[in-house]
Amino acid sequence: MPDFDLVILGAGPAGTAAAMQARRLGLTAALVDKAEFPRPKLCGGLVTGRCAAHLAEIFGIGITPDLFETRRNFEFHLHDQLLGTLEDVPPLHLTMRWDFDHRLLQEALAAGAADYTGHRVETHDLAAGRLTLASGETLAYRLLIAADGVQSPTAKALFGQPFSQNTIGFALEIEGPSQAPTEATPIRIDFAAANWGYGWSFPKKQSTTIGLGGLHARNPQMKAHLAAYLAKLGTGQTAKVKGHFLPFGAPKPIPGKGNVLLVGDAAGLVDPITGEGIGHAIHSGALAARAAKIALDQGDTGRALPLYTTATKPIRRAIAQARMLRPLIFSKPLQPFFARTFAGSTTLKRDYMHLLSGDMEYPALLRRTALRLPRAAFRYLSAAASGN
Ligand SMILES: Cc1cc2nc3c(=O)[nH]c(=O)nc-3n(C[C@H](O)[C@H](O)[C@H](O)COP(=O)(O)OP(=O)(O)OC[C@H]3O[C@@H](n4cnc5c(N)ncnc54)[C@H](O)[C@@H]3O)c2cc1C
């Protein structure tokens, strides 16, 4: 029976990053995914500066034209109001997940991960550390890294459900016709296109990725929101609408159990304001492999989870800080304050871009926003954050 230090379930950004890091540290690793690659993944494909740094560090992949298109201009809207435009901001990059994830997988396999993509898991004995594939082959492992996405069957097996219905996000997306964009074509963000969420239009050469997402519980009419948004953008609904859950600010406090580490979406690591998840997925995958290496070297697999929990604390803290700020942008009573403050402040708009580019983190953004807010809005925000 093939026996691995790590079996990594899921070969998206989180799983392939875990495999890359594991191989670099000399661990044996099997990458299992039910899908054959390349495979579709619903996603805007916006790659932030933070994500680009993780890509370079873990995969040695730079921002090259075969995978990325760079954009430097932005437009922000709220309902029918243009809140402002920004030109020449720190660059952000657009990619197609079909190609992007395939490339990450190729890198992980070239680094020596064993390839079990295109294999469904038939049975999984978490206690024994064994899983049997539909092909009949059984794989044994000492630690499992579960990178099996937002609907993580592993998280469900460990905790009874992969996520909470109260906090989960949901997004709809289409690939609309390409408008033959140039580097100057703006990326468009529409705050409030969905309740407690936003809409986006990402102009790419191949297509225009248009979508909206928000808290699932607050958007029973998500399809109607999308139809209205497409009408506003002047795009007919010619392409097929696809939907997907996304974790939206509720990371698992302990990301795993026993010898199982949850990474990426399976651990709930998506920013609840920007929707950024790829960077956190890559980062957490690599951190899990590092924790696994230390634990295996110490001959104590039980050490991996506490080490990994500590290592991912800054990601969970950033998500918690984003949650504090979220009512300011998304709650209806505060939207007039937000619109006035955001529209009137180039600094705040630039701060938002620096947050996306990875040059600024939430504590600084929180401080700077608080200084600009009218007192009434600040009181409301503090009360909302403390749950009053
Ligand atoms: C509409 C939408 C737009 C988004 N836009 C952006 C964006 O622009 N920028 C950004 O940074 N983030 C964005 N995100 C979030 C981002 O897509 C995720 O955070 C990211 O893909 C998480 O990576 P992951 O590796 O954890 O999971 P995934 O990429 O979901 O990969 C999970 C893998 O696990 C496999 N799997 C699942 N179940 C099993 C099983 N039982 N057995 C074996 N394999 C299994 C799947 O086949 C899949 O390959 C968006 C999300 C959505 C829904």
From TrEMBL:
Coiled-coil parts of chain: none
SUPFAM superfamilies: FAD/NAD(P)-binding domain
GO MF terms held by the record: oxidoreductase activity, acting on the CH-CH group of donors, NAD or NADP as acceptor
Superkingdom to which the source organism belongs: Bacteria
Stored PANTHER family: CONDITIONED MEDIUM FACTOR RECEPTOR 1, GERANYLGERANYL DIPHOSPHATE REDUCTASE
The protein's name: Geranylgeranyl reductase
Organism whose genome encodes this protein: Roseovarius atlanticus
